[in-house]
Design goal:
By secondary structure, the chain is of the alpha/beta class. It is 31% helix and 17% strand. It contains 6 helices and 8 strands, in the order E-E-E-H-E-H-E-H-E-H-H-E-H-E.
Length: 205
């Protein structure tokens, strides 16, 4: 475990605003970058939701794709995205990862649903209608062999120039890390689940 700052540690905070660069023309991004949120800690999906909300607040259009999330499964972001004209279009692969069903799930149906959502995401991304694409939990889809890594790398390399992309999930492959402009690893120091506290409404879902 990495050491944490002691209570006596002092930090110097700059009063100077971070540099800002104009990156939009006619309300659209001129150059899209790639974000990765990975690691064992909580916050990967949460961070991508925050990014999506911020983008919408600046007038951008967002396509938010969630892999291994059933459409019937309740979640705060699903209710929000679909309850109003949020500027965020949500696609769910409508299947659970076999690890959570003790491998009772038909793996062929999982592959079909994952590839269906991925194909739809790519088609919509190339339509030019969106400024930000979030592929939530795409790492386990790639690492499990549900999505071909080389295909994802090719898609990212050939995507529209102004399309920002966020990828989430544990164990980001080196090939994706190499392509990314932002890479954040969520480090778990403590988590209530380890003490028997299960996912809580409005916090984890």
């Amino acid at each position: 475990m990495r050491s944490l700052p002691s209570k006596k540690t002092t930090f110097t905070v700059s009063t100077r605003c971070a540099g800002r660069q104009e990156n939009m023309t006619a309300g659209r991004l001129t150059k899209g970058l790639i974000h990765i949120y990975t690691g064992e800690g909580k916050g990967k999906t949460t961070a991508s939701i925050g990014l999506a909300v911020r983008a919408v607040g600046q007038g951008l259009k967002v396509l938010f794709v969630q892999f291994f999330k059933e459409d019937r499964a309740e979640s705060g972001e699903k209710e929000l995205f679909r309850s109003m004209d949020s500027g965020i279009e949500l696609i769910r692969s409508n299947c659970r990862h076999p690890i959570f069903t003790k491998n009772k799930t038909d793996r062929s149906s999982v592959r079909e649903s994952i590839n269906g959502a991925y194909s739809e995401a790519k088609k919509k991304a190339f339509s030019g209608a969106f400024d930000l694409l979030v592929l939530d939990e795409v790492m386990p889809a790639v690492n499990g062999g549900w999505i071909d890594l080389s295909d994802l790398v090719e898609f990212l390399g050939n995507r529209p120039a102004g399309l920002e992309v966020a990828l989430t999930g544990r164990d980001a492959p080196p090939e994706l890390v190499e392509m990314a402009d932002y890479v954040t690893e969520m480090l778990k120091i403590k988590h209530p689940f380890d003490g028997g506290v299960h996912a809580r409404r409005g916090i984890e879902y």
